[in-house]
Design goal:
The complex is a heterohexamer, with three copies of chain A (about 425 residues) and three copies of chain D (about 110 residues).
Chain A: E1 22-23, H1 32-58, H2 66-93, E2 116-118, E3 126-128, H3 129-151, H4 157-180, H5 185-189, H6 197-215, H7 231-250, H8 258-286, H9 291-305, H10 314-339, H11 347-364, H12 376-409, H13 416-421, H14 423-428
Antiparallel strand pairs in A: 1-2, 2-3
Chain D: E1 2-8, H1 13-22, E2 28-36, E3 42-46, E4 49-53, E5 56-65, H2 70-81, E6 89-95, E7 98-101
Antiparallel strand pairs in D: 1-5, 1-6, 2-5, 3-4
Helix pairs in contact in D: 1-2
Classes of the chains: A mainly alpha (about 425), D alpha+beta (about 110).
Bound molecules: adenosine-5'-diphosphate (3 copies).
One adenosine-5'-diphosphate sits at the interface of chains E and F.
Chain lengths: ~425, ~425, ~425, ~110, ~110, ~110
Amino acid sequence: MRSLLRCTRFLCALVALGAPVLAQEGTAEINTGDTAWVLTASALVLMMTLPGLALFYGGLVRSKNVLNVLMQCFLSAGIVGLLWILVGYSLAFGTGGSLIGDFSKVALSGVTMDSVSSNFATPPRNIPEYVFIMFQAMFAIITPALILGAIAERMKFSVWVAFITIWFLVVYCPIAHMVWAPEGWIFKSGAIDFAGGLVVHMSSGFSAMVTALFLGKRRGYGRESMPPHSLPLCLIGAGLLWTGWFGFNAGSALSASPLAALAFLNTGTAASTAVVAWAAVEWFHRGKPTALGGATAGVAGLVAITPACGNVSPLGAIYIGIGVTVVSYTAVTFLKPALDYDDSLDVFGVHALGGAWGALASGIFAVTYGSGINGNAQQVMVQLKGILFTAIFAPVVTLAILIVLRLIFGSLRVTDEDEVEGLDFSQHGENAYTA
Amino acid sequence: MRSLLRCTRFLCALVALGAPVLAQEGTAEINTGDTAWVLTASALVLMMTLPGLALFYGGLVRSKNVLNVLMQCFLSAGIVGLLWILVGYSLAFGTGGSLIGDFSKVALSGVTMDSVSSNFATPPRNIPEYVFIMFQAMFAIITPALILGAIAERMKFSVWVAFITIWFLVVYCPIAHMVWAPEGWIFKSGAIDFAGGLVVHMSSGFSAMVTALFLGKRRGYGRESMPPHSLPLCLIGAGLLWTGWFGFNAGSALSASPLAALAFLNTGTAASTAVVAWAAVEWFHRGKPTALGGATAGVAGLVAITPACGNVSPLGAIYIGIGVTVVSYTAVTFLKPALDYDDSLDVFGVHALGGAWGALASGIFAVTYGSGINGNAQQVMVQLKGILFTAIFAPVVTLAILIVLRLIFGSLRVTDEDEVEGLDFSQHGENAYTA
Amino acid sequence: MRSLLRCTRFLCALVALGAPVLAQEGTAEINTGDTAWVLTASALVLMMTLPGLALFYGGLVRSKNVLNVLMQCFLSAGIVGLLWILVGYSLAFGTGGSLIGDFSKVALSGVTMDSVSSNFATPPRNIPEYVFIMFQAMFAIITPALILGAIAERMKFSVWVAFITIWFLVVYCPIAHMVWAPEGWIFKSGAIDFAGGLVVHMSSGFSAMVTALFLGKRRGYGRESMPPHSLPLCLIGAGLLWTGWFGFNAGSALSASPLAALAFLNTGTAASTAVVAWAAVEWFHRGKPTALGGATAGVAGLVAITPACGNVSPLGAIYIGIGVTVVSYTAVTFLKPALDYDDSLDVFGVHALGGAWGALASGIFAVTYGSGINGNAQQVMVQLKGILFTAIFAPVVTLAILIVLRLIFGSLRVTDEDEVEGLDFSQHGENAYTA
Amino acid sequence: MKKVEAVIKPFKLDEVKESLSSIGVQGITVSEVKGFGRQKGHTELYRGAEYVVDFLPKVKLEIIVKDDIVQKVVDAILKAAKTGRIGDGKIFVLPIDDVLRIRTGERGGDAI
Amino acid sequence: MKKVEAVIKPFKLDEVKESLSSIGVQGITVSEVKGFGRQKGHTELYRGAEYVVDFLPKVKLEIIVKDDIVQKVVDAILKAAKTGRIGDGKIFVLPIDDVLRIRTGERGGDAI
Amino acid sequence: MKKVEAVIKPFKLDEVKESLSSIGVQGITVSEVKGFGRQKGHTELYRGAEYVVDFLPKVKLEIIVKDDIVQKVVDAILKAAKTGRIGDGKIFVLPIDDVLRIRTGERGGDAI
Ligand SMILES: Nc1ncnc2c1ncn2[C@@H]1O[C@H](COP(=O)(O)OP(=O)(O)O)[C@@H](O)[C@H]1O
Ligand SMILES: Nc1ncnc2c1ncn2[C@@H]1O[C@H](COP(=O)(O)OP(=O)(O)O)[C@@H](O)[C@H]1O
Ligand SMILES: Nc1ncnc2c1ncn2[C@@H]1O[C@H](COP(=O)(O)OP(=O)(O)O)[C@@H](O)[C@H]1O
């Protein structure tokens, strides 16, 4: 979704990329094709979390921790799904100021069957606001869940529950507002973030990094081998993520329009390119292309194209896919050992840096610009501002949350014994597999 | 889908919740957006059975019985999918009387490319009747499959095949007609059953209960532990069910309309709420929230919102999600041991009682009513009539089927030895997992 | 998709089954409902490969080879997904001649946000060309991946990468052009191939057969037992294939129209019928219906209805489902042992012969004909021409590719030792499952 | 001290364990094994192909006991594991030189 | 009576089993084990990280035989399991005090 | 020669292996087992139902050694496997009649 201008209020650019106007006059007509596509896209984005991400991450941990990972995803769907209706939507998309929304739409007050949101078709058309709310809900659900990859196999479940609740309110909602609401300052600056490079991937990825550092490494990290317990689960997850990502990116056009089609095409193209590029790099560097590499590459390609998918050409998508391979491969292969942090499932290398690259590349390869921007150089500068802000804001606030949580919970980690025995049993009283 | 009035024939209520009018004039225009969404929704509902439900149930049994569960789902898709075209659609949606349809549409006779069904948009629009037939086919397929949860790990496969064939014809088709066809008496009474609390969940759930009792417990039940062989499979299934359920519920608007959007929003909200509530209850009651609890909660929330999703507000959805947690948690935790029945995978606690709660709550929290109803009190009374009828009709007819089947097949169960060895090998000659 | 006539140029048949007209005038209006459905269908078709087919095949191999299978699917999505944009789309759908397209649309040159493709609604409407490109991309991705079923557990990964690259360019693109582009000679002959019986299933199936023969059997084939390592994975895959196939077939109408609805209905009906028929045959012939049989049957039914789904009646779909059961069951049970080839996962029996039967049956049961055809007898003759051509062209060109590859790579197989140890470790340096 | 090894049918495990518990056995080590014996394997079907499965799932128990209760242990297993059908399994008795408890370092009879 | 234990490469199982069958061995118990020995483990790659896998999959056979055919059994295994490459495995021979057949209660040589 | 069998807690495997390596042990065979002993099982919850799990996951090591280093091996295991908490496991020492290396046919001490 979205960058820049509110078409019906400002002017209508050739490719309209405005924030949705929420008209409440009750007489606005909705477009059924647009509505059909955004309904579908919303379902696809839920599938990305449940079961997509749950599997992608769940397959990568040891079998004694897989249920814990799955539950972290389910609870994100539970807590954030509920909070979104109660207060999150209002904080993110309520009018408010340039930093955060307000409480005007708490518990969806004022939203009725007649409320509509304007979309990014040219000229803009309407979809029911309820659809927009749910499409956005699915974004809100997946974002905190992405963080778990960095803290897997060691965080207390109670801490997780508290953490995502607070993080959602004080990190996600403000960033979503700043970037996607017409009042948000990043939005107003003309930054491009079509489907959430800043809002989703950088915000979660940089927060994940600081959380991983704060928590410390898994017991035995570096000494024992901790291979994925089921790569097939991981690859199923990657496949479902890929499928669902079409809803994520093309759905962000909020319309069944040529813009959605372009976003769709760029999404697939960047992912395909990254898979090929990553396999080539691994083959060259390690002698063999790995399956985990294939899955990681697909996801990295999808992350990087996310902010850019509505504003670049198919060739741009190819460059972005190649670029993210370089960035993320380097990060997980060289940067991680060099910095010696334990980001269990590489959220930083893939989402934080992949998202940052995508946000930058949105400027470099843009063929349509944000509102008030005239050219790639200017767009790149604006993008950098958004990237920098997110890369500082998200981890700093996350750090504050973690400090508070440590005051409340004592240790944020399970005991050593529980960690050895596995979080499935210690946190949930269950085992994943039996005969 | 559906309650109450046929818009083009009667009057058009503000929120039209009528049974689809099947116009055959050949000149009726169809709406492509509505058609696109119902096509999508139909695919999503199939995904609920294959592989959603198959996994949800398959993960919960022991590894020696998982293929049997999967095959029970596949055969439901096979048998019911075929019978629906041959005779089921006609029995359920053919004109007929107030109890059952007729044979006027056997083998879809008379249905052509020009046939259309009217939908629940305001004012009603048309979709191709072929789409309506397939959307309904997917409901017919999942309903008998739900029953298997109660009889898993012990029923002869031949009996299953015979059972669902007959059950589909003499339980499902009549109930679907009574509740959803304009001639059906429950429909005419003004009952709300938007996407099938009575038709799908109560009918299968109460039938499941009587079948479990009739069949007796699994060998060793209560003595041996029978833990789920793969909770990850179960949770993948729950995730796919959740995703598909958006098609189930929002698709029941038969349109890409604000009504569909409301149903979609309520669906997600109720599921999220139930996940949070269930985890809270388990944490409090058992000290730990379980992953199986999370998956169960999601499904229970989805079941309960099913009948209500088009007629309640988002806040109503939250209450329904909390309510079903109380109902289903109590049922599986206290009622099951107390009554000492072996409903292997808790179809009764989740679908029968969750569905009944949802049907009741549709009356309690309704903001739009069934045709001819003026207020929640009246609506509740009408709902109770439907609930009571289904809770008696389905199990009684099911019992009759079981008695007949016992005359034909002798025992409905596999031999003790086959049960010990597992149904995968004894019924299908296969093992699920090998090296 | 497609057979026969270009509506805006020729005449508009009652049921328009023309190749999409690519209008570039920039003012053509697109239909949002049609666009919504084809966007959705494209995502569903990707899901067929990732993770559908990957699971269906991955579950059938031994656990030491599952990652190799998954990676073959991922690389198909990578390589073909990228090549499609760069050159494939142009080769398949660029104007060109009667055998192959041209380079006019290399790297999508000339395709813009305003480019549209005409669809098969009556009268034809438009969707963005970008959507058409991506829908077709997903077909191009799955087709080479289908081949892997015949060569699983023994081909070098480097050979696979080279093989699909070349095969895609010299087999897939030409066949797609001949059958689906308005200039293609098979298209012009009036052949029916609605969603790809020739283009997808026969082309891959016959190529698979010759590749299996060329490669030789797996070490130990016939002596050791090589049971599927995880039938549940296989059945999940089959379920996702079934779900996605609705996008494959009904999406081929390129519209949310009655034609799409008919294709959808026929698709489900044929699959259901095949599942029932196959179970019946196995029960009779072997004493037990198997789960693998159920999954195979579903896929076989879907394969067979693929070319026919837009041109036959629901009863025709039932006959096609029964017919393919006879054909494929006979092939995998009697023909395979008789001919003594090692088509590891039965691509020949299911896709090649199932696809051929479907293409023939499209003629036998057609109720709407190809352009210029008047009756089933004539249609059958035209179908036979297409079938014969594909059954010769695909394997002959494939053989040439294999001979060239042998010159380059020496052996196409991994070493005996690597085969014994498993391709996961030898080709990718990983193991699928650990504790 | 002796080591008693028993290969039994898997579904008999719970019964055998209870029977051993009831005669005072305090430790058992169990592993999943596959057995090849007089009991002939079954045939599995995969897409028309038949596979003969020679190896049947069995469970192996290992129990270290003092010499004086070896016979009691053997009898308990014999009784609890018997179905009377082919494939019930075997019991082997092996000599043991020494036993230690890791936790305490105790040795011999005390360590059992 | 003796117990012959052999740790072999997994893919040799079928050959060894057939070879033993052919010299009249009627019962074998098999388990999956992991072996650590002179054969060095391999390195697996996971997202750039390398894991050295020390333990290699092996199969363990346990065969109870009468004293007089111990040598024949050992020879059969030696021959069938040998590839000549490091990691082929080991054979151990252990003394046995007693054997029982659960089904019949037979004891000693008859129970094998 | 003796066979040392040790049943230990799974997470101690790496430590024990390293400790054995350091005293010159060149071969170990490892299997996953389930143990029943004084350490009481835990309770798992499944949808309200509680299952008592009696059998706990353990790892069994088998090491064939020459008589003279048996004590060193036992001590190494004792030290590396000990947590001091119940369930640490047992060590058994069994007599061995013979050992062969399949690859070379070597016999006795040389084969270890
Ligand atoms: N000589 C033997 N050595 C090792 N294990 C044996 C031997 N004989 C039998 N077994 C084990 O005992 C199991 C049962 O033996 P089997 O011959 O099938 O039946 P029964 O015990 O009734 O004679 C076998 O599956 C195998 O695991
Ligand atoms: N001393 C030993 N005790 C127990 N098992 C051993 C011993 N030595 C070797 N093994 C087993 O035999 C396997 C093969 O041994 P290894 O030293 O790798 O090769 P080789 O048998 O060719 O000398 C090991 O993986 C291990 O399972
Ligand atoms: N008599 C025995 N025979 C065989 N295995 C035993 C015996 N006693 C204990 N074990 C094994 O040792 C493990 C640990 O024993 P346990 O009694 O729980 O604690 P501890 O070793 O601290 O006394 C058990 O789980 C079991 O596998």
